């Protein structure tokens, strides 16, 4: 539609080339001679669903007005108003209603001649129309006869004579239209497929798009060809990026296309619109006269757009080119899907390598962590076999106890990590008094902190109750506080607070644990929640540990749909901020 709401005539000269039009013009002249009608017009069906007048003989006014122009494919008035006559439809003027007359005024031509005045005489508003179909019954065009030299309306005998004289020409017109539909189309598709075959295999989506664009541009002899993935940024299209993506997605759903010209833009089965400024800028930026946009997709999924551009002095896009571009777009879609599979395979391989590396590192870490306590166990067992003074026996027994406890802690942490990492474990969800849990854990660690010369400050609000896994939450709080104490030097301070806190309208509890200990390097902050991670800091490595405590904290918190955040600075200290929703995990989005 134009801005004032009026119908905008579809673009012209979209069917065939000049030589094909010249052949149809000659056929139309022959039809006029054989049928004894002065005016003969041929409309060809284009790939965009419009009919275009491609040959008109016998009326200069009609040729000037209608040749090369197009109209929507509307056959209702022909089928409903026309009288069937051996493959033809005669539409007498007295059957025309106001709506049909308005249609004919817009898309047809009424000759400026008087009525014949003869009995059964031809009226200037009369029409004799034949729908031209191929052997499969598919419409390929329409043939119009006007102004019979006899001045009379057709009779069955006259129509039979017309068919006998000119019937072979009807088939010739269908053949020419189909040859235009498929001939140039086959040539373009062949060139494009050869170019596609030359693209390197095994490319990812982005590299594939780049290579395809260059290969198709060279093969099809166009000013520009770009294969644009869905969601990609297109320079100069910022204002209409979203709307154009929606347009192309709709075109994929209806297997259509969009033709962009400087004044008007056309899409399949839709009225024309004034070309948006952003598309005009694109044409100007690349020095193009017009563009053809064909959606790329697979099934219901829109994958991107095949954008083809023509130079300023190049002809308009014709039906066979549009058909060819649609076929090429299907080939491109197949390559895009293959490139996606390549990327997914590479990502999966990388993930598998990462898992393999992780398992390798985990085994090495476990071996390293277990080696020391096991070595202590064997050394002191050997000593106990010898005759030692009582004080040395006591020292060995103490060492054995420490080694055994370290192994026990590691086994306990491993079992806890496995438990809280298993989504199918089905832990019992109960009401957990987090106020009591934090206070009791703090009291338990007070003596440890005091022996280490560390001040432990606790501020916990009353009545903090949530629904969750009691065992997991207890382990999380214990690890949170003991980790802070372990990495804080004598004379330091650890403070823990627990308060009600809502996030995004969800009620919850916030636990904050702050220490002024050794801190964590900035490049290691994102790694500390990984199982078995141990800091490279010598000062941190002097503290014994399994590297599982923080991993357990993260698993428990995320298992309750909460969040854990760490802020840390070397030499200043660390702050762990945990937020947990009050509702059970299966009720939290």
What does this structure look like?
With 589 residues, the protein is an alpha+beta fold. It is 46% helix and 22% strand. It is built from 14 helices and 20 strands. It has a seven-stranded antiparallel β-sheet with strand order 3-2-1-7-6-5-4. The chain has a six-stranded antiparallel β-sheet with strand order 8-13-12-9-10-11. A five-stranded mixed β-sheet has the order 15-17-18-20-19, covered by helices on one side. The longest helix has 67 residues, at 319-385. It is elongated. Mean pLDDT is 83; it is low at 1-7. This is Sensor-like histidine kinase SenX3. It comes from Nocardioides flavus. InterPro entries: BphY/WalK/GraS-like, GAF-like_dom_sf, HATPase_C_sf, HATPase_dom, His_kinase_dom, HisK_dim/P_dom, HisK_dim/P_sf, Sig_transdc_His_kin-like_C.
Short recap of the structure:
The protein is an alpha+beta fold. The chain is 46% helix and 22% strand. It is an enzyme of class 2 (transferase).
């Amino acid at each position: 539609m134009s801005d004032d709401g009026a119908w905008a005539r579809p673009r012209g000269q979209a069917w065939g080339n000049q030589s094909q039009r010249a052949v149809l013009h000659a056929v139309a002249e022959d039809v006029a001679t054989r049928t004894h009608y002065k005016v003969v017009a041929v409309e060809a069906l284009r790939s965009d669903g419009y009919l275009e007048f491609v040959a008109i003989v016998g009326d200069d006014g009609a040729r000037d007005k209608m040749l090369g122009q197009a109209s929507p494919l509307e056959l209702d008035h022909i089928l409903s108003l026309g009288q069937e006559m051996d493959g033809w439809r005669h539409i007498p003027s007295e059957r025309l209603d106001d709506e049909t007359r308005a249609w004919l005024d817009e898309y047809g031509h009424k000759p400026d001649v008087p009525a014949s005045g003869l009995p059964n005489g031809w009226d200037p508003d009369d029409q004799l129309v034949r729908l031209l179909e191929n052997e499969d019954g598919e419409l390929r065009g329409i043939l119009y006869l006007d102004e019979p030299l006899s001045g009379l309306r057709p009779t069955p005998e006259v129509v039979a004579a017309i068919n006998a004289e000119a019937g072979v020409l009807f088939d010739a017109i269908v053949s020419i239209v189909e040859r235009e539909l498929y001939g140039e189309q086959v040539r373009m598709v062949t060139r494009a497929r050869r170019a596609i075959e030359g693209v390197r295999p095994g490319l990812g989506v982005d590299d594939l798009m780049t290579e395809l664009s260059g290969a198709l541009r060279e093969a099809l002899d166009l000013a520009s060809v770009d294969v644009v993935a869905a969601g990609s940024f297109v320079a100069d299209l910022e204002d209409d990026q979203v709307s154009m993506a929606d347009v192309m997605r709709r075109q994929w759903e209806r297997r259509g296309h969009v033709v962009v010209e400087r004044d008007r833009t056309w899409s399949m089965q839709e009225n024309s619109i004034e070309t948006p400024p952003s598309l005009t800028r694109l044409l100007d930026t690349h020095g193009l006269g017009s563009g053809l946009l064909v959606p790329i997709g697979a099934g219901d999924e829109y994958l991107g757009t095949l954008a083809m551009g023509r130079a300023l002095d190049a002809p308009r896009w014709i039906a066979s080119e549009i058909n060819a571009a649609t076929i090429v777009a299907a080939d491109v879609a197949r390559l895009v899907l293959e490139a996606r599979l390549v990327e997914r395979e590479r990502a999966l391989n990388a993930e598998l390598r990462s898992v393999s590396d992780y398992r390798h590192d985990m085994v090495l870490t476990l071996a390293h962590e277990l080696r020391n306590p096991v070595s202590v166990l064997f050394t002191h067992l050997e000593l106990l076999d010898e005759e030692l003074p009582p004080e040395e026996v006591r020292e060995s027994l103490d060492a054995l106890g420490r080694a055994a406890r370290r192994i026990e802690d590691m086994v306990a942490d491993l079992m806890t990590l496995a438990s809280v990492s298993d989504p199918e474990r089905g832990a019992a969800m109960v009401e957990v008094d987090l106020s009591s849990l934090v206070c009791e854990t703090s009291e338990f660690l007070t003596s440890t902190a005091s022996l280490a010369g560390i001040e432990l400050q606790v501020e916990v609000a009353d009545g903090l109750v949530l629904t969750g896994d009691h065992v997991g939450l207890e382990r999380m709080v214990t690890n949170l506080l003991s980790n802070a104490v372990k990495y804080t030097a004598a004379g330091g301070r650890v403070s823990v607070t627990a308060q009600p806190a809502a996030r995004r309208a969800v009620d919850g509890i916030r636990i904050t644990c702050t220490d002024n200990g050794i801190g964590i390097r900035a490049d290691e902050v994102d790694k500390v929640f990984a199982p078995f991670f141990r800091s490279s800091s010598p000062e941190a490595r002097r503290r014994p540990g399994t590297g599982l405590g923080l991993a357990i904290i993260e698993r428990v918190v995320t298992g309750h749909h909460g969040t854990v955040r760490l802020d840390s600075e070397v030499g200043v200290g660390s702050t762990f901020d945990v937020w947990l929703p009050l509702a059970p995990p299966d009720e939290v989005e």
